[in-house]
Amino acid sequence: MLFPILDLTEARQTLLRRRSWAQTEYPPALLERVAALFGEPLTPEAAVARILADVQRRGDEALREWSWRIDGVAPEPWQVPLAAQREALARLPADLRTALEQAADRIAAFHRRQPAHSWLHTDPHEGVLGQIVRPLDAVGVYVPGGTAPLPSSLLMAAVIARVAGVRRVIACSPPMRGSGRVTDVILAAAAIAGVDEFYALGGAQAIAAMAFGTETIAPVDKIVGPGGLFVTLAKRQVFGVVGIDGLPGPTETMVIADVTADPERVAADLLAQAEHDVLATAILLTPSRPLAEAVQLAIARRLESLSRAEIIVTSLGSRGGAVLTPDLETAVEAANAFAPEHLCLSVADPWALVPRVRHAGGVFVGEYSFEVLGDYVAGPSHVMPTEGTARWASPLNLEDFIKRISLIALTPAAATELSPIAARLALAEGLDAHAAAAQARL
After folding, report:
1. 65 counts as catalytic
2. pTM above 0.90?
3. Any catalytic annotation for residue 45?
4. Which CATH superfamily is domain 5-15+250-391 in?
5. Nearest residue to 143 (alpha-carbon basis) of 190, 177, 104, 205
6. Residue of 111, 276, 342, 382 marked catalytic
């Protein structure tokens, strides 16, 4: 069935069960494509490692070759001039330009409210302790292209980097097959966000260029933004050479709804997420079987008019469904265990459930705070933790584009007082030179 209705016990063994990276099973078609590309059977991880090593070793020449082999096009040059970004912005329909600008304004306004400032604590006896907050020097933003180019993802990262004060913001996005160009709407978003350099590059080779640098592309300090499998694997492998925001996987939405929810709206919200990707997850948690059945019918009816119906059918058939829970409290606990990217509360009293939520990338309170608004224009970044990482990770925010430097300026009196403590701890660790350095201040 397209959108099955499961009891909680069954769902915990199937729909709500998380799998680790090590348990990933790749589609045979993907493995066949990798084998054809490399002339031998390789796992996606091994294929990405080979691309990264080649770009690190041969720079621009390797970039050109991999772009041609994978994307079927190798723009020359691959840097898109700032003038071309502005021209793309000028070509946009007026209403689309206005929408992008309004979204950028709201993203910037939201993140300007986030506290991220230096602080100092001064004590006459002890001296000064504190933190110095500094923006990163250079950040690279990956922008998905493919079947659904995402200018919103560019805004959701580059605008925040600018608010944080990052000195150099670059972006990479794959060119369209045939034309070798990046779509106007993505270039226009880059112009609005104030991107310094834009490169028509995609996939693991783009991540390699930003991480290691080439003859024409200077490396960055951190890479952010969502991408497909090869991009995510590449970010995972370059972590340590550069920072990364996380490893965002396919989108996830979990809706908790009660009998008061509008089944048409719930169905619309679930379908909106399922159309992203065949690996997208759209799950309804509800104590109401009548609501679950009404949503099931609404999904089938609405599906007939949607352009990405084939993707939705695959997504909902393998990763979607309704789960019946004894009550709303149990639904929230099931959501906490799953730790979804998006958690939508379509219930009569959503604020009563908010204090119970411990793990989610974003909480959408009530039917009018629906997730699609979060995707584009509410204000918080839509780059959120997936794959259960909301247990410990946060959405992309100002903290991702700054670093904190500890400041220690102790008085001689404080050093004299603290040195015996440091010396004793150093001796307990067997570090005699550490202890001697502390004792030299006595």
Report:
1. no
2. yes
3. no
4. Nitrogenase molybdenum iron protein domain (3.40.50.1980)
5. 190
6. 342
